[in-house]
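Input sequence (257 aa), recorded before submission:
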Amino acid sequence: MSTIIYPSPIFGPVHSRRLGISLGINLMPADGKVCTFDCIYCECGLNAERRPTLPRPTREQVAVALEAKLREMAASGLQPDVLTFAGNGEPTAHPMFADIMNDVISLRNRLCPNAKVSVLSNATQLHRPDVVEALMQVDNNIQKLDTVNMDFIRLIDRPVSRSYDVEKVVEQLCAFHGHVIVQTMFLTSASGDIDNTTDEYVLPWLEAVKRIAPSQVMIYTIDRETPVSYLRKASHEQLNRIRDLVTAEGIACMASY
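Predicted structure, token format:
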């Protein structure tokens, strides 16, 4: 059972496989997980087993804690490569996400102007205009699209809302007009009945990626303990094959093993 619950509202810095030295911004409670997905591969565990008792941090708490951490890092001669909205659940689900984003960008501009701002999101809040407007301001608008197969999404990502529609999500990602990075988890299972690395899943996903025309695609696989024990990493060969299919379409693609 995975037990990683990140401090809130600021954690790190940590070294990200994809982003470098990352200072995390966690808009979820410090003692549990709140997410609009319930992914069976989530390093923070399953929603029902990580119910928080504390509230989400307020806008003011985030700003104060971030400024203090950035000043502490500067005093020690360390600068983050990126300020990353991540942590114990979906960051854009915070009701004050857009206002918090404005504060973060202001602090970045004053205290670490070379750092990029990134958001790791599962793309479930793109129906909210304030969220989309905030995401248009960030350097790395990273949105999850593990597959376009709804049965697989229900099996792996397990959206909390019954109204989740992956086709609608693809349309919303298209509306960024390229100001988006598509992030996809590829994985298999011990029995082989879970595997989105095959053409059955990859080719329709690739067609969606071509429609979205993102600035980049990030593909990755399991790196830490998962809530269920039967999941397995996709191999280097599998990820390399998918990466090459994406780059053959003229779209930049990074594979993290």
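Checked by second reader. The chain has seven helices and ten strands.
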